[in-house]
Amino acid sequence: xxxxxxxxxxxxxxxxxxxxxxxxxxxxxxxxxxxxxxxxxxxxxxxxxxxxxxxxxxxxxxxxxxxxxxxxxxxxxxxxxxxxxxxxxxxxxxxxxxxxxxxxxxxxxxxxxxxxxxxxxxxxxxxxxxxxxxxxxxxxxxxxxxxxxxxxxxxxxxxxxxxxxxxxxxxxxxxxxxxxxxxxxxxxxxxxxxxxxxxxxxxxxxxxxxxxxxxxxxxxxxxxxxxxxxxxxxxxxxxxxxxxxxxxxxxxxxxxxxxxxxxxxxxxxxxxxxxxxxxxxxxxxxxxxxxxxxxxxxxxxxxxxxxxxxxxxxxxxxxxxxxxxxxxxxxxxxxxxxxxxxxxxxxxxxxxxxxxxxxxxxxxxxxxxxxxxxxxxxxxxxxxxxxxxxxxxxxxxxxxxxxxxxxxxxxxxxxxxxxxxxxxxxxxxxxxxxxxxxxxxxxxxxx
Length: 447
Description:
- Helices cover 51% and strands 3% of the residues.
- The protein is mainly α.
- Helix 3 (72-88) packs antiparallel against helix 4, helix 16 crosses helix 17 (405-412) and helix 17 crosses helix 18.
- Residues 33-39 and 431-437 have low confidence and may be disordered.
């Protein structure tokens, strides 16, 4: 029977109990009625309970609840957790940490039997959760809902606030195409997030200026508007020009603008920097680093000019019988590199005997996974960079061969433009000017 004048609702259990007797009575009743763990499988549901407001529970209460109660989530993931741990050489401590995190998530989960959001796993750090490994397990089991926001997405949202709606929609189309690519016509490959970040940084002052001038859409922009908006010179002009070319190319391909205002406009050529040799003592100190990973990375770059990405992706199977295979190139390793390689492999076997990571370089963060190390490893522990060391090695080859461009391209796997950039230093310096030394002197100095 329907209530004619409505029904008054109340929030339950909001009366303050000054004695605490009610809470203690409930706790005793729960302890007396504690049931054995259920063996029913976890069945996913499609709905999710929405919260009116969130009250973060205390750390102690959550930890006690996770230790005391049964966890359907852990039961569901346990077998896959053990298999994943064996495949990746996880320690018993890491396995126990992931199991404890799954119990924490069960205690914190608002709607049981639904997928776990990545943000919920990250929020569980305050309770002592093991985040990265737990995310891996949930992803393998199929219970992960990845709602993490990329840094470049936050950066894009920050720089498109308060723009006209049409302009924002056009920018969003460009951003989605750049970030994820397009498999339908007009097809386009996804771009690196660093490239997108640079394009946004170069264009954002220009599109805000256009919005302040009263433009509602990029379809209103003409070639004269672009010429007036571009900075006069410098890197800001180059970044802005590259970004605008990318933006209008995507919008024209999707028929969101009538014409591309940059079509036929001459591109600004960037200023070409001249690479310089490194100080010999810096190279020698880095080659003799007490850290085996640092010494090997420096040796591979100093003697064979590997770049940072090649070092990251280098696998154990890429080195066979003293030869390094990089795509179509086969490089015989120098004697100092072999010495440091043997020392590093011994160090790796002692420190991480159970790791199944296929990459040559392994860190504490990657030893329990199969992904490569970061771009900063191990250069953040040294006072030189991979690029400066690679430049020095190529320069030594320039001086040794008299600027043989074809040999540079074949030996180091670089293009004609890059080889000509290195060769240009011969027109400005001579070998006896005191700028030559670097890698060759470090090798002769007892490396």
